[in-house]
Amino acid sequence: NRNPEALQAQMPLLYALKKKDMDMLLQPEKEKLTKRVGKAFKYCSALQAKRVSQKWRTENADENRALYYGEVDPVEFGMTIHRIRGIYAHSAAQPPAKNVFYDVGSGAGKAAFAALLAVPFQEVCGVETIDDVYKLSEDIKKRYETKVLPGMTKLERDLREKTTIKFICADGLDTAVDWPRGTIVLFHATMFSQESLRVFADHTEFMEVGSVLIMISKPLMTTQSKWVMLFEDSIALAWGDARMFV
Q: What CA–CA distances, in Å, run from 201 to 11, 54, 59, 158, 212?
């Protein structure tokens, strides 16, 4: 018989109490994830992806700060997905639910693949504005399918072989891009303006009840929906640590 305010206060406490135990339990998964991430992204480091992004912006004289390249550490992000499932028993992170992961501003697609390497999804999708950076995700997809997936156990492979992996070259804030259908959505908000953050927040109104939203650097702006803060933590990025709001 707890009221919403009491539940809101308890969610971050639950994370604080369980994170250490969960990470100890997941140590074998982290080691496995580290190896697979290394194999999947062997030819696409954060620095290489950043250079591709910089080259495109220079050639196109595009000074939009929101397009500056940055990526989360894939292993740390994969562990975040594990914790969401393990601590909160979130149905969207467990098969055979119709779980869909979306990364709005997906860069080279590493967060999407890290999520899939950690937990089976029915579908993983990335939306990236810069065409040359978007093409990197297609290259990584081929490597994942030929070098990583075949090396998994039969059970792991069976849970992922039917996963739809899709990357879109488009503006993630365009209302024509249907990322609100995602059950887990990542948005790297570091360089976005207040106006863009408001557009994003308004889009979240179309997400289903029970969905999870992961914000990097900046929390979600106030919306009509009653989002509950599960936890706040730090996460490693290519250039250093940032705040993560879930």
A: 21, 28, 31, 36, 13
Is 121 within 8 Å of 115 (Cβ atoms)? yes
List the one residue out of 211, 108, 99 whose CA is nearest residue 160.
Answer: 99
State pTM to two decimals: 0.92
The C-alpha atoms of residue 215 and residue 134 are separated, in whole angstroms, by 21
Comparing CA positions, the residue from 172, 113, 169 lying closest to residue 141 is 113
Q: Which amino acid is at 68?
A: Y
pLDDT tens, position by position, for the chain (246 residues)?
567 778 778 888 889 999 999 999 999 999 999 999 999 999 999 999 999 998 988 999 888 877 787 899 999 999 999 999 888 876 655 555 689 999 999 999 999 999 999 999 999 999 999 999 999 999 999 999 999 999 999 999 999 999 999 999 999 999 888 999 999 999 999 889 999 999 999 999 999 988 999 999 999 999 988 798 999 999 998 778 999 999
What distance in Å separates the CA atoms of residue 171 and residue 192, rounded to the nearest whole number?
A: 13
β-pair type (184-188, 212-216): parallel
Q: Which residues contact 82 (CB under 8 A, 6 or more apart)?
A: 22, 26, 29, 118, 119
Contact 244, 216 (CB under 8 A): yes
CA distance 173 to 166: 17
